[in-house]
Amino acid sequence: MCLVLGLMIGCQLATANPLDMKRMTSAITIGGHEVRHVVAVEVDKSVDMLQDVATITLPATLYGKTLNIDDKVKRGDVVDIDVGYDGENRNEFKGFVSTLSNDANIVIKCEDAMFLWRKAVKSKEYKSVAVVAILKDLAAQIGGFEVVAAKGAEAVKFDKFTVADADGVEVLQKIKEQTKMNIYVRDKELHVALPYYEQMGKVGYDFAKNVESASLKWLRADERKVQVKVIGIAKDNKRTTVTVGESGGDTITLNRYKVTDKSALRAIGEAEIEQYRIDGYEGSITGWLQPYCTYGYFATIRDKDYPSREGEYYIKAVKVTFDDGGGKRQVTLGKRIS
Question: What's the whole-model pTM score?
Fold first, then answer.
């Protein structure tokens, strides 16, 4: 696929698109077949989701004939999506076909290697066990995956954790919800990390150079609403919950094991709020396919009109779109790091 790149400059943030003289190019394969005639591609990645997902849209007709791919594409086929400019493509997604539909267009939904975790695992009750140990047990049952734990992840434990009539994805989702840890797959590795502790790379955005549009609010520390729910879990799995802060903004849930005193839980919650109550941007910016970044990157945001607002932010989500509107990367900012 090869389209002439023509992007509309939004919000007059960027004076010119530095990539407007280049051609959009792609290298997309499904089940080993090269895909040439693409209407659109969308890739969604978020620290809040277990898996990266992608949607490939193909035309229902081509050269006046119905495009029939039933004998070429099926659930479970391997998918590779590389996009870029002038043949300098970069991989944005690797995974598998999950669903296929044919309406006005052919729509192919894809999941990353978490797709392989949709297998039943043994019902079991774990006691006094580290999260990483549970993940290693699950990985052994799924087969073919190595668990990679970032610094600090080994210290997170459950007094009791129960698996009952579930598949691997359901169990991982339960662990993620209860611990708020980052859990994701990359090829044949299952990664686990504490929130904001894992820096996967760095990227810079300058409103005068590589930002097409933005949906941002600058909030002072005293304007930023944060609500923290702290759950204390006793040895018998009895839970004590304390909620502090204001609703209507970011919501954070923390689990603390062997801490059940309400005053102690409240102090933990208030300390967490103080880390978030700093001046900073909230929202998202949209640039082009370059520079590359994904969630877990640290983004430095610069604005020559407001030099005092320069700062570094944790990227919590990225959406890549590739269609006749151009190649774009929407970056959602999370916590301000510095």
Answer: 0.85
